[in-house]
Design goal:
Blueprint (H helix, E strand, L loop, with lengths): L1 H7 L3 H20 L9 H13 L3 H12 L15 H16 L1 H7 L2 H38 L8 H29 L4 H25 L7 H23 L1 E8 L1 E4 L2 E4 L2 E7 L6 H23 L4 H6 L5 H22 L2 H10 L2 E2 L7 H36 L3 H4 L4 H24 L11 H5 L2
Antiparallel strand pairs: 1-4, 1-5, 2-3
Length: 450
């Protein structure tokens, strides 16, 4: 393993890509400490810690958003919105392309069509940034004059305007960084930025865990050991499910040419167990955060809405029920629009492949759809388990929400998925240069075991 890591830097092209990617990620982390205009960072940090430590709806929503921004919200940085508006816009247009015929025709129009969809996604990102930045600026302004979050030298309209401009520009700059990593670096740029933000939060969570353990009546050694064991087990489970596939046996048709028989080789068609990835969890969180934010804001002004806001607070019973149902729904929905059994059956038929015992064409499509429906159920159950695990761990072990979030949820899925993607891309470069890979993408190491 260490020899393989050392050989990475022997490949000049790969070394340059890794160093370029690392440089842009460092720039991203530096931007997370540049405060937006008119913000008192020390007062904001104190206010955010008070909000996130409290058992209220807005505090839990802010804690979840701060995880994806890498702590930028806590410091009032220009990257407070993170890259999530762009992710949301991309997912929305990906779904619209599969539903709206006009957008589908544009998307299937070659490079020009894809470029137009990308432009529409960027415009939608700007719109989402303006809306979200306006909401954050208004919230800061509402609490800022009394707690000192907002500088007294800045007017209300001026603060909102500068807040919207700085946060929107920050997100668009992050989007540009992601595109540069895609073109000149290694890995998916947007995913790497999200992963860097999530990993940046881990040292502070681990530090608070051991700080609490050193205080009287804090977390004991037994709980810390149990948290470490759960983290290792959940990471292993996420890796297995992320790489897990249902291998469907296919066989090539035989052809006689003279006295020789060509074809007839058996191959496998891998179908991913977790076809939808982390998208169902992101969509479910986005939908459930809307009533939590609305009822949380109304609850601050009207007592009648406080109980309704608690129902949609993360960790509550009805929140968990709707959370699981939405995850399973979006898992099936996204799998249905990304996996086309008819197209796959036609491709198999045209390439002279068939599933043994299944007639080519319509029967093959029905067979593939039946298999995908079953494994989608397994994938949705696993995603639901990973998503709600931090809630039960937080209550069971009586630990902070941020610490429990390391044991599951969106953060762990993103970190594991992106890390595996980077490892596979690095391995492909090593295999092209006749080096041994890590054994993840099916390189020489796995071949020698046969």
């Amino acid at each position: 393993m260490f020899e393989t890591l050392a050989k990475i830097f022997n490949v000049k092209e790969l070394r340059g890509k890794i160093m370029f990617t690392a440089l842009l990620l460092i720039i991203y982390r530096l931007g997370c400490f540049i405060p937006a205009p008119g913000i008192d960072v020390s007062a904001l940090t104190e206010f955010m810690q008070k909000m996130m430590s409290g058992n209220n709806v807005m505090g839990k929503v802010l804690s979840m958003a701060d995880m994806f921004s890498g702590g930028a919200i806590r410091s009032g940085a220009i990257f407070s919105l993170g890259i999530m508006p762009y992710i949301t816009a991309s997912i929305i247009f990906q779904l619209l392309v599969a539903i709206v015929p006009s957008l589908s025709r544009i998307a299937h129009g070659g490079a020009t069509g894809r470029k137009k969809i990308q432009q529409l996604t960027r415009l939608s990102t700007v719109f989402l940034c303006i809306v979200q930045a306006g909401m954050i600026s208004q919230q800061f302004l509402a609490h800022g004059r009394t707690s000192g979050l907002v500088s007294s030298n800045v007017g209300n309209l001026e603060f909102v305007f500068y807040g919207i401009m700085s946060l929107t520009v920050g997100t668009m700059f992050l989007m540009w960084l992601g595109e540069q990593i895609d073109e000149f670096g290694i890995g998916n740029g947007v995913s790497l930025i999200i992963m860097a933000g999530i990993i940046a939060r881990m040292p502070s969570s681990i530090g608070s865990l051991f700080t609490d353990a050193g205080q009287p009546g804090g977390i004991g050694i037994g709980k810390i050991a149990l948290i470490i064991v759960l983290f290792v087990m959940m990471t292993l489970a996420v890796v297995l499910i992320t790489l897990g596939t249902r291998r469907v046996a296919v066989q090539a048709s035989k052809a006689n040419r003279g006295r020789k028989v060509y074809g007839g080789q058996r191959q496998v068609l891998p179908l991913r167990v977790n076809q939808a990835g982390v998208i169902p969890i992101i969509f479910a969180q986005a939908i459930l955060s809307l009533p939590a934010i609305v009822f949380g804001w109304l609850g601050e002004n009207f007592a009648m809405f406080r109980s309704a806001g608690q129902l949609f607070s993360p960790g509550m019973f009805w929140y968990t029920v709707f959370y699981v149902l939405l995850i399973m729904f979006f898992c099936y929905f996204y799998t249905a629009i990304t996996f086309n059994p008819n197209e796959m059956a036609d491709n198999l038929k045209q390439s002279g492949m068939y599933i043994p015992g299944i007639r080519p064409g319509k029967r093959t499509a029905e067979h593939l759809e039946k298999i995908m429906t079953r494994i989608a159920l397994a994938g949705s159950i696993f995603l639901s388990f990973v998503a709600i695990l931090p809630q039960f761990v937080s209550r069971w072990l009586e630990i902070d929400w941020g610490i429990a979030g390391m044991l599951g949820g969106t953060g762990l899925l993103i970190v594991v998925g992106v890390a595996l993607d980077v490892v596979q891309r690095v391995e492909s470069y090593l295999l092209m240069k006749n080096y041994d890979g890590f054994g993840v993408a099916g390189g020489k190491v796995r071949g020698r075991r046969r």
